[in-house]
Amino acid sequence: MRVLLLVSAFNGLSQRVWCALREAGHDVGVLLATGPQDMIKGVRAASPDLVLCPFLKERVPAEVWRAWRTVIIHPGPVGDRGPSSLDWAISEGARRWGVTALQAVEEMDAGPIWATRTFPLPMAAPRKSSLYNGPIADAALDLVAEVLEKAADPGFRPVPTDDMPTEVPGTRPRPSMRPADRAFAWEDSTDHIVRRIRAADGTPGVRTSLAGLDVFAFDVHRGPARGGTPGALLRRRQGAVLVGTGDGSVWLGHLRAPDGIKLPAARLLGKRLRHVPDAPLPPGVEPEAPGTYRQIRYRRDGPVGWLSFDFYNGAMADWHSRRLLAALRHASAQNTEVLVLRGGTDAFSNGIHLNVIEAAADPAAAAWSAIRAINEVCREIITCTRQVVVAGYAGNAGAGGVMLGLGADVVAARSGIVLNPYYDIGLYGSELHTYTLPRRVGAETAQRLIDEKLPVDAVRAASLGLVDEVGPRHPEAYTNWLAALAEDLADPRAAKARRAAKARRLAGERVPLDVYEARELAEMSRDMWADRSGFAAARRAFVTRQRPSTTPSRLLLATPESKPVTRPRTGGSKPSVRPAVPVSA
Q1: Centroid of chain to Cα 373
Q2: Residue 284: Cβ-neighbour burial (10 angstroms; 0-12, 13-18, 19+)
Q3: What are phi and psi of 580, to 5 degrees?
């Protein structure tokens, strides 16, 4: 079937749907919703059998939904309507939520229902981005598969909304959440503050005041129960600040000034933290006290060492990489057979921290420092011969974040994650990818992945050799699966043989790692200081969330060889069959 994804952005969910439909054999393309006329022209040019909207904030023009069956994936259960569905669900502590596939009509979120799913929400307030990329995305993928099956059935008719039972009590049309609906006071309880900020995480954040500075707060974590004066800055650690609440404290990892970009909290507050004590945690120190904030953790479980890191949105400034490098060296010095390097469930890594670079007094120097630091992490992974190294990709990864773990002995990915193994921001790229990527997938495939600039899901990545093992989708099941994999690899005799083979392979390399890095850095220097490929403008567009004005040609649905006359369709009428044409790369 020819499927066109009409989306506001080619984000994680849109990419996951795109990958799943391609793997299922459908012809699938993407059209960014850059304006009503562009949408009409784009859909008409693609002439799809079905228009699918997994992430769309804009209204579908009537000229589109009247002529092509158009299905919206709404992040709410039957009866819920409005643009702030997840914000309200988290803020009000909903115990159950859902996702609904509905047909586009004149009134937004009011069309007949194609399919729906519901699921429980955790007691602790989830981060909005975590909820969206986790349970919401999983349910959406189920719905997409069901929608495609029903779209192929000439007898299917969607169910009018009023005839569909409501599985989640209290659902109703809700307006866009206003700043006043998100507001909190520092005298409020920790639970209340955490819920408010997490309901707005990603965007738009919650406006508040810290040290006399007006800011938007993100990336909140519970702190110690024994806090301090509400609103007071109590401590700082790893870029985060500890703030007193009415009954304890919270850690804030990121802040944004009203006219600025999102940055690590300590970086934004700057000199205002002059008298706030630092509370570092060296590698290997693992306090068990509740409310302990740290981005990197190491623990040992028999013959397996676990080094976990979780950087907000997977972005790594130079100091993130330096801390991870120190932790890697600590972990590799332990007498374990296997070392598992596991990234966060939301993101394994997305490479260097573009916001920190953009905010630096000298962005080129900041970018250079960041890339040199992350390269040291990559080198440590590649050259580690004291343990069998397993890179556990529990979350999505992009650009240098994909390349980060490719030097591991075993790369293990969670089912459903999406990898973007290319650089598309005016950078040649480093992370020693010219050494690791061809050794995994071959020189030809490596170049194609870089040139095509298309995402791959975990299953496709495994078929290419980009990853070695694919584990279950559920985070807890993946953790157990990864532990079993590590235990299998920890057999002393087999682990010793694998390490020895790796040592021989490294010793036998005709071209040293230094040469690969030097070549990459030579290219990167031209991108960072000479700006030969538009890194500065692309970076600025990314951090300021500028929307593209056109859809990249590589994402478009190929123009059909012939276009039958388009007839208006209503209800569940079957789209006319058009010749299948592969998506152009």
Answers
A1: 22
A2: middle
A3: -80, 130
Cβ contact 283:318 at 8 Å: no
Annotation: CATH topology of 179-273: Methionyl-tRNA Fmet Formyltransferase; Chain A, domain 2 (3.10.25)
Q: Is 14 helix (H, G, I), strand (E, B) or coil?
A: helix
Q: What topology is assigned to 2-176 in CATH?
A: Rossmann fold (3.40.50)
The model carries a pTM of 0.92
Cis peptide before 204 (omega within 30 of 0): yes
Specify whether the CB–CB gap between 54 and 13 falls below 8 A: yes
> Could you give the CA distance from residue 76 to residue 171 in angstroms, rounded to a whole number?
9
Q: Position 2: which residue type?
A: R
**H-type helices in 299-425, by residue range?**
318-332, 354-359, 363-383, 400-403
Return d(Cα 12, Cα 313) in angstroms, integer: 12
**Domain 296-475+500-529 fold:** 2-enoyl-CoA Hydratase; Chain A, domain 1 (3.90.226)
pLDDT digits (tens, 9 = 90+) for 112-142: 999 999 999 999 999 999 999 999 999 999 9
**DSSP characters over 54-82:** SS--SPPPHHHHTTS-EEEEESS-TT-BS
3-class secondary structure per residue, 523-578: HHHHHHHCCCCCHHHHHHHHHCCCCCCCCCHHHCCCCCCCCCCCCCCCCCCCCCCC
Spatial distance between the Cα atoms of 16 and 10, rounded to a whole number of angstroms: 10
pLDDT in tens, 447-488: 999 999 999 999 999 999 999 999 999 999 999 999 999 999
The residue type of 267 is R
DSSP tag of 465: T
Q: Tens of pLDDT along 491-548? A: 999 999 999 999 999 999 999 999 999 999 999 999 999 999 999 999 999 999 999 9
What does the radius of gyration of the chain's CA atoms come to, in whole angstroms?
Answer: 25
Distance CA 201, CA 126 (A): 10
Can you tell me the distance from the alpha carbon of 82 to that of 176, in angstroms, rounded to the nearest whole number?
Answer: 6
**Sign of the dihedral defined by the CA atoms of residues 355, 360, 364, 370, in that order:** negative
CA–CA separation, 456 and 37 (whole Å): 31
Rounded distance, CA 318 to CA 374, Å? 7
